[in-house]
Design brief:
The protein is built from eight helices and five strands, in the order H-H-E-H-E-H-H-E-H-E-H-E-H. With 193 residues, it is α/β, with parallel strands linked by helices. It is globular and about 50 Å long. Helix content is 57%, strand content 12%. The protein has helices at 2-18, 22-40, 52-65, 84-93, 99-107, 124-136, 149-152, 166-189; strands spanning 45-48, 77-79, 113-118, 139-144, 157-160. Strand 1 (45-48), helix 3 and strand 2 (77-79) form a beta-alpha-beta unit. The chain has a single domain (2-189), classed as 3-Layer(aba) Sandwich (Rossmann fold).
């Protein structure tokens, strides 16, 4: 068991070292800048994902609405899967691939940001949401793994983890999400030089 534990930790460390590339650092910075601009313009951030990515989406929305590291005013953010009545009604009356699109139609406005999380990059409802949001004038940020072919054309900023291992991808998504939350707080409430 100890060997398994060590291997998992070492795999995580090695992947995180790969995140220090200039391209990936620049993408994280651009994602934070898009969110800061949306908030400065009176917009909000919408999140969507399935399964573990839904949990991550809800976690990040909570960091923005509540607080991340500093006392500050609440920032408007919501995870689109959190209203289970809307989610199940839309899935039942339309199609599961529409559960996020219908809510973006209701709540999304030009200048808002949609953050779509999909470890595989193939979640039909997330892809459809990113496509719809982009056409509606929202900025789009995608969090995914190595296979990001479909998501790349739908995102203004794509954060693609250089891995195909779902647990490692999810760990990085939360790391990047927390970094972005910190940058957003600093950018809005205490300019980082």
């Amino acid at each position: 068991m100890i060997k398994f534990i060590e291997d998992q930790i070492n795999d995580s460390i090695e992947l995180k070292k790969m995140l220090l590339s200039d391209d990936l650092l620049g993408c994280v910075k651009m994602a934070a800048e898009l969110i800061i601009l949306a908030y400065k313009g009176g917009g909000k951030v919408l999140f969507c994902g399935n399964g573990g990515s839904a949990a991550d989406a809800q976690h990040l929305a909570a960091e923005l609405v509540g607080r991340f590291k500093r006392e500050r005013k609440a920032l408007p953010a919501m995870a689109l899967h959190a209203n289970t009545s809307a989610l199940t009604a839309i899935a039942n009356d339309y199609d599961y691939s529409d559960v996020f699109v219908r809510q973006i139609e209701a709540f999304g406005r030009p200048g808002d940001v949609l953050v779509g999380l999909s470890t595989s990059g193939k979640s039909a409802n997330v892809l459809k949401a990113l496509d719809y949001a982009k056409k509606k004038g929202l900025k789009t940020i995608g969090f995914t793994g190595r296979k990001a072919d479909t998501m790349s054309s739908l995102c203004d900023v794509l954060l693609s983890v250089p891995s195909e291992d779902t647990p490692r991808i999810q760990e990085v998504h939360m790391l990047w999400g927390h970094i972005i939350c910190g940058l957003v707080e600093d950018g809005l409430f205490n300019e980082r030089k």
